[in-house]
């Protein structure tokens, strides 16, 4: 039997037993893992050093090597995150709805674990611990497939998790790591419908699109964000500038950063130069349409392609529109249904924006940068879903649950 | 442009406008469609006659031809169903959750339509109207791909729906039917992620498995049911016999019918012959394991394959177990996680069954035949989901919804 099938079977074999563990048993296990990470910190760092050495020999960029590093602080952060997850509400076993039928059947809809979660992710080894702990907290077994560049680190972390789980009430088999990180094996993972209830890809757009296109296992897609800030006619000047600058520059490389600012022509005639100046003061390269170029100086001409581009750096496109509806249409045409903001003092335009823009998160007078499980108060984040099935937007622990119906009768048969 | 892309684009183009129609506008449209079906009943039956003639010439079985027939009664039933759907609660626009964050952001989670639903289905033309109306009620556009054997009937029904929608406030483009029913076109539909938010296959297991395996569009899987009734030691004799007979014989061809009855050995020693007699009285062919054969006469030996078979006819496998946990293990090994029943007077065994059997619907002292959107009180049924993502078990209107987050701020930016 291949490593893939053997480990998938182990994960599945452990799922039923794991799924009925109590909140106390699961939380205790998270604490044991946290403590084990600290007590084995030198082992982890030693194994991590092998990945760092390999990466250096292969000539990886400094930023990529930095993502691989596990130092004392980062391991302590992982341990802290585990203890915080232990504090979170356990969504398993909640009675979500209950009702009685005219024939006296009593129906309950109860939250249960998904079963076995497959995770395919890149580089950062902290995802290994994060994914494992979120799955354990929600009673799910997990089959992890990390990056080959983090192979030693990931194996060390899962070895530590196994040693911790053996001291706990949870089955150690519930966390499985594939040592074979070949693409062929990942492709086989896409077809493991008999073992996996969901696949969650975390990483770049190429990885996610490959999984979406090839997986027959249901996928939770966490995709790209071409996000907009629309500054309406009535927008407060300073609020609009602050939000546009924040949405673009506070962390340009993430999916909830803004890529295009759309400006109502009346506001632009008064304030566009000041907005551009503020953006340029933060080293933003601003690309404007014809009207923006006519209203402000030092703009690079925007191309059609710019409207559809997730720059992920300090580049921003600016478009001028004659009325709010044109902004809504632009967003629905070019956006990726992630996070969209309107800055306005008009309730009508706010409501039109909320009703007619199709996106996971819609903001009135706030930055798009708040689309995030922690900012939403979920205490944890599985990722930000860009699909409409199962979960949309920031996903907390409930995204890792399914339901079952419990029906209590007194001998009812169907007529 | 191909018919597929043109119609997918029309559906998508209409989705945003449809999604914000009021409940009153949507319900009015359902009534207009119902009336139009009746006023064009002769047109529909005339077109249906062409499909019937084709089917007869191709030598279809009588049962398949019967599924195709649209007579006065069946068209009236469709119209009645439309009017009943108009009465159902509209799940769109519900505020599902709302909370404030410490930074004063006010967050609401609101239910919204999925967008565009793709339906791939076999034979029965009533599914055309049912799918279209359920989608319209929930503000979703729909791209329909029916069977070639029902091509004239489906086109007539969608023509009627279009003429009705033109009298309504809803966009007529929201309902699209593919006239090209080739497999190649269906395969292309599996890859229309830019146009379709979900694909729902309705039909036989082959169709569903093909869609699950090949679609990159997220799928709502409505699959097969290898359902069990477990008769525990303490089960009431007559209740157990009545439920086993009902679960097997009330409608053997459907997914929530029982395929195996598992019997506790102590109950079997007292009552197995009477159970077998009752089943055989309903023309059930009973296949028993060695122990069942020793306790009752006239049993055909059950094979290993029988435990995994969804007979879908009046065939039933019977297995004897020494204790309840063995029944739970058998069900988790061979079941398809659809509907499972325990007949017992023991609360402990009921709870063990509820906690440890992994299935969409778990029954205590009731027939598995109740797993159904109408029996659950949903007033409509999209299908019975056998996957764990998004929806599990009978799906009512909320299964055709997604969510968006609405966040109201006062100028908040991320620190």
From TrEMBL, chains A, B:
Family matches, as SUPFAM superfamilies: ALDH-like
Domain named Aldehyde dehydrogenase: residues: 74-286
A Pfam entry, by short name: Aldedh
Catalytic activity field: L-glutamate 5-semialdehyde + phosphate + NADP(+) = L-glutamyl 5-phosphate + NADPH + H(+)
Subcellular location: Cytoplasm
Major localization class: cytoplasm
Recorded metabolic or biological pathway in which this protein acts: Amino-acid biosynthesis; L-proline biosynthesis; L-glutamate 5-semialdehyde from L-glutamate: step 2/2
Keywords of this entry: Amino-acid biosynthesis, Cytoplasm, NADP, Oxidoreductase, Proline biosynthesis
InterPro entries per the UniProt record, alphabetical: Ald_DH/histidinol_DH (IPR016161), Ald_DH_C (IPR016163), Ald_DH_N (IPR016162), Aldehyde_DH_dom (IPR015590), G-glutamylP_reductase_CS (IPR020593), Glu-5-SA_DH (IPR012134), GPR_dom (IPR000965)
Cited PROSITE patterns: PROA
One GO cellular component term noted in the UniProt record for this chain: cytoplasm
Single biological process term from Gene Ontology: L-proline biosynthetic process
GO molecular function: glutamate-5-semialdehyde dehydrogenase activity; NADP binding
Function: Catalyzes the NADPH-dependent reduction of L-glutamate 5-phosphate into L-glutamate 5-semialdehyde and phosphate. The product spontaneously undergoes cyclization to form 1-pyrroline-5-carboxylate.
Record-stated family: Belongs to the gamma-glutamyl phosphate reductase family.
Protein name: Gamma-glutamyl phosphate reductase
Gene for this chain: proA
């Amino acid at each position: 039997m291949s490593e893939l099938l053997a480990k998938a079977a182990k994960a599945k074999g452990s799922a039923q037993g794991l799924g009925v563990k109590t909140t106390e048993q699961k939380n205790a296990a998270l604490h044991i893992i946290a403590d084990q990470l600290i007590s084995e910190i030198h082992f982890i760092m030693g194994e991590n050093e092998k990945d760092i050495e390999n990466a250096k020999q292969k000539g990886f960029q400094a930023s990529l090597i930095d993502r691989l590093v596990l130092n004392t602080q980062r391991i302590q952060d992982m341990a802290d995150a585990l203890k915080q997850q232990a504090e979170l509400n356990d969504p398993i076993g909640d009675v979500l709805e209950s009702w009685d039928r005219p024939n006296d059947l009593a129906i309950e809809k109860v939250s249960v674990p998904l079963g076995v979660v497959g995770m395919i992710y890149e580089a950062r080894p902290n995802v290994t611990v994060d994914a494992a702990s979120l799955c354990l907290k929600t009673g799910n077994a997990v089959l992890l497939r990390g990056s080959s560049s983090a192979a030693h680190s990931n194996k060390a972390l899962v070895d530590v998790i196994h040693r911790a789980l053996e001291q706990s009430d949870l089955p150690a088999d519930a966390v499985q790591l594939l040592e074979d990180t070949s693409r062929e094996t990942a492709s086989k993972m896409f077809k493991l419908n008999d073992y996996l209830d969901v696949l969650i890809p975390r990483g770049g757009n190429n990885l996610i699109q490959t999984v979406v296109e090839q997986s027959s296992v249901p996928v939770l897609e966490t995709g790209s964000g071409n996000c907009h800030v629309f500054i309406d006619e009535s927008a407060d000047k300073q609020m609009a500038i602050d939000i546009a600058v924040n949405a673009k520059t506070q962390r340009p490389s993430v999916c909830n950063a803004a890529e295009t600012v759309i400006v109502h022509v009346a506001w632009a005639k008064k304030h566009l130069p000041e907005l551009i100046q503020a953006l340029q003061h933060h080293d933003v390269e601003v690309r404007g349409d014809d009207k923006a170029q006519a209203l402000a100086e030092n703009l690079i001409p925007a191309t059609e392609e710019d409207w559809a581009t997730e720059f992920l750096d300090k580049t921003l496109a600016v478009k001028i529109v004659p009325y709010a509806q044109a902004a809504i249409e632009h967003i629905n045409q070019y956006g990726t249904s992630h996070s969209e903001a309107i800055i306005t003092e008009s309730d009508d335009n706010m409501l039109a924006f909320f009703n007619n823009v199709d996106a996971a998160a819609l903001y009135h007078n706030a930055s798009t940068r708040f689309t995030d499980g922690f900012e939403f108060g979920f205490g944890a984040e599985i990722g930000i879903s860009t699909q409409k099935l199962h979960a949309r937007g920031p996903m907390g622990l409930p995204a890792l649950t399914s339901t079952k119906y419990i029906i209590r009768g007194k001998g009812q048969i169907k007529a």
